[in-house]
């Protein structure tokens, strides 16, 4: 283990559930924030939402972010992608 990692505070983010920073890329069936999360629903969280909340994370004392998958996939968790090489676009 690298020496620097011993003092790093990591914060794991499930992007789809973290914060919706760009409503223009929401799926058609997006839920209202505050509704009960379910296995197959979407809230529209995205990378833009994470970017908007970097100051918040810094204020918490976070030094590094660990994301769950950000691949294109039909599920909200994105572990079921069909193409691991496809780049993430703005949307």
UniProtKB/TrEMBL annotation:
Keywords, sorted A to Z: Glycosidase, Hydrolase
UniProt-listed SUPFAM superfamilies: (Trans)glycosidases (SSF51445)
Domain Glycosyl hydrolase family 13 catalytic: 12-86
A Pfam family matched in the record: Alpha-amylase
GO biological process, one term: carbohydrate metabolic process
Signal peptide positions on this chain: none
GO molecular function annotation: hydrolase activity, acting on glycosyl bonds
The keyword Hydrolase is assigned to this record: yes
Protein name in the entry: Cyclomaltodextrinase / maltogenic alpha-amylase / neopullulanase
Annotated organism of origin: Candidatus Hakubella thermalkaliphila
């Amino acid at each position: 283990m690298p020496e620097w990692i011993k003092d790093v505070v990591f914060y794991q983010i499930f992007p789809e559930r973290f914060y919706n920073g760009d409503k223009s890329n929401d799926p058609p069936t997006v839920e209202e924030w505050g509704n009960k999360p379910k296995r197959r629903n979407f809230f529209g969280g995205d990378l833009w939402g994470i970017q908007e909340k970097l100051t918040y994370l810094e204020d918490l004392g976070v030094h590094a972010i660990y994301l769950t998958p950000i691949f294109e996939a039909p599920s909200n968790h994105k572990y079921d992608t069909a193409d691991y090489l496809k780049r993430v676009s703005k949307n």
